[in-house]
Amino acid sequence: MPRTAVSVAVWVRLEAVTDSQVFVSRAGAGEQFTFYVFDGRVRMLIEYRPGRYAYAAAPLPPPGVPTHYLGTWDGAQVRIYRNGLAAGVAVARGAMPPSNAPVCIGALEGRTRFLHGALAHIQVWGRSLDADDAVGLAANRNDTRRLSRGRLAWWTPASGRPAVLRNRAVQEGTLAMLHETPAVVGKVEDGYRGIWYSNQPTGNEYAYKYSGGLGTYCAKHIPMAVHSPETRKTFFCWGGRPADRNVLWHMIGVFDHRTRRVSRPVFLLNKHTDDAHDNPVLQIDAHGFVWVFSSAHGTARPGFIHRSLAPFSIDRFEQVLSQNFSYPQPWVVPDQGFVFLQTLYRKGRRFLFSSRSPDGRTWDEPVCYACMDEGHYQVSWPWKNKVGTAFNYHPAGKGLNWRTNLYYMETLDGGRTWRTVDGKRLETPLRRPQSRALVHDYAAEGWNVYMKDLNYDAEGGPVILYLLSRGWRPGPEDGPRVWQTAHWTGSRWDIRRITESDNCYDTGCLHVESNGVWRLIAPTEPGPQPYNPGGEVAMWLSRDEGRSWRKTKQLTHNSQYNHNYCRRPLRAAPAFYAFWADGNPREPSASRLYFTDRAGSHVWRLPGRMTTDWEVPEVVR
Q1: DSSP secondary structure letter of residue 264
Q2: CB 357 within 8 A of CB 338
Q3: How far apart are CA 283 and CA 337, in angstroms?
Q4: Distances 585 to 276, 482, 557, 561 between C-alpha atoms, Å
Q5: SS in 3 state form for 132-186?
Q6: Among 11, 318, 407, 425, which is most exposed with the fewest C-beta within 10 angstroms?
């Protein structure tokens, strides 16, 4: 019987992309279907009438990078998707002629055009999948009822055999080549270096809206460091770079609290951009596996999720997902698994979504919980079994440099439902600025609101750290820039001023400690490039829940470059309490990475060049 629909999906990692090579095929060249590489493109070929074929084409995968492809045909058009995004289409109107030919993996029938690489999670359907299916497959959501409908066969890395055979048209499938999803071997680098990045030139002495050494950018990428009490080590990641060019590398390091040494850093992947919005975040699951979530900025590039092959190790990783997401904030919640807060772009607008996973491999569809006007920036944090988020919004028609208002909401069930700070159910997604989640209406007062951090007191009351300014421009004109906290006391929001700063992109972190001390570590002091992002880092303490603050120490002095984006580890241990990077905000420069302890007794610089596997960081103050 002629066939009028088929779909084929596969994860592939190519070692070489120069030769013609096959992912999945049925029959000979130009017959039935072939998913393959030819002439510098990935093609999905369909024989839509006897002896007639057409193909859709997509870009090649980068060598060595696991990439997801889906090819579909509905009797009229053949389409191809790359990492869940539409990549090519061609007309193929007709019906595929009947055939008893086998399905071959990694080669054509007759054992030609062998694959130079590895395949995994190969699936064949007798129907045409759509764009939503493409997104789900790229996210490894392969066990849903929707994706199982009409599936004829699949091959898994564990078995190497067809798992389901419902149609004799594919029952004689031949496995020419099949490998497990390849491991990414961490490449050990010789030192700690940060990415330099700039955004929106200003045409004046300040050069850019924001810029500098942004290896720990931005406040909406959380967490970038996690302390493991079991191993007495802090695992951390950042946006790094090679020694010879400014391109974003995702890097991972470890600080050993017993020896006070840092490991040589490990290179995970090249993001093929200098955009610090693509910086990674890091998480550790209940079994000790290290997870790295690699962000995308908007929709131009894919995001990735990698998992270590061994607990508490950064030596080898496997890619478990390639999907678009921005500003990643993954949390591991007891009895819930992963709760992943993220930003997804919808027609250029930044909307807030959450998705859940019991194991990091199989993910629910992301669900939107806030989509006001032009979108939002958020910071989040867990407390026991809840995850809270604090965010602003972009009023319609005013552009992304205008962000205002302060909101808070929390979830106890991984994002299925959301509630206000006092436990009232919210109807989501939030669509209107005047919502019960509103903490303070700063739009009415003409303030920009910049999100910095979120923490909780001993009773689970949220404490939001943010900065107010009169505009986005660097320089004195849009001042003052005021550091603020909003603390839920159990009955009301208590909003207090901390101090002033000289740029709205000055970014620090807030510790709320078990003894009731609140500790701010932030670049609140003018630096060598005044009115540009960052400055000199100071430590501020409050012993009365934010009602009064005292600067107890200035942690950096007489610096060459501004310091910025001080980040707080999850479950921070005293010896590695905040880390950040420096750089010249007015022109491209080198960028170094630093950390301090809870007391602020010293500031250490991570070694820019290492000759042994573990070294003691340099004391700079």
Answers
A1: P
A2: yes
A3: 12
A4: 14, 21, 17, 8
A5: HHHHHHHCCCCCCHHHHCCEEEEECCCCCCECCCCCHHHHCCEECCCCCCCEEEC
A6: 425
Low-confidence winner among 115-119, 546-550, 562-566 (lowest mean pLDDT):
115-119
Residue ranges of domains in the chain, CATH in brackets: 6-181 (2.60.120.200), 187-619 (2.130.10.10)
More confident residue, 55 or 399: 55
**Predicted confidence (pLDDT) at residue 434 exceeds the cutoff of 80:** yes
Burial of 557 (0-12, 13-18, 19+ CB in 10 A): exposed
Other Cβ atoms less than 10 A from the Cβ of 397: the count is 8
**Contact by Cβ (8 Å): 252, 235:** yes
What residues form DSSP beta bridges with 220?
Answer: none
User: In angstroms, rounded to a whole number, what is the distance separating the alpha carbons of residues 494 and 379?
Assistant: 19
Tokens of 546: 């934010």
Q: What does the block give as tokens for 613?
A: 């596997």
For the chain, how far is it from start to end, CA to CA, in angstroms?
78
Over 90: is that where the pLDDT of 367 sits?
yes
Give how far Cα 90 sits from Cα of 55, 106, 166, 294, 513, Å. 6, 24, 29, 32, 60
CA distance 288 to 16: 34
Higher pLDDT, 137 or 459: 459
Torsion of CA 258, 261, 265, 266, to 10 degrees: -30
Q: Taking the CA atoms of the chain, what radius of gyration do you get in angstroms?
A: 26
- Asked whether the beta carbons of 553 and 233 are under 8 A apart, the reply is no
Under the banding of pLDDT at 50, 70 and 90, the label for residue 179 is very low
Tell whether pTM > 0.85.
no
Distance CA 144, CA 141 (A): 6
Q: Strand order of the sheet with strand 151-155?
A: 85-91, 77-82, 67-73, 6-14, 117-125, 151-155
Q: How far is CA 483 from CA 216, 450, 508, in A?
A: 20, 10, 10
Pair 98, 1: CB distance under 8 Å? yes
CA dihedral 64, 255, 621, 466 (to 10 degrees): 80
In this structure, the strands spanning 418-419 and 316-323 are: unpaired
The residue written with tokens 């990641």 in the block is: 237
Alpha carbons 258 and 489: distance in angstroms, whole number: 38
Cα diameter, the chain: 81
Give the residue-averaged pLDDT of 132-157: 73
**pLDDT level of residue 30 (50, 70, 90 thresholds):** confident
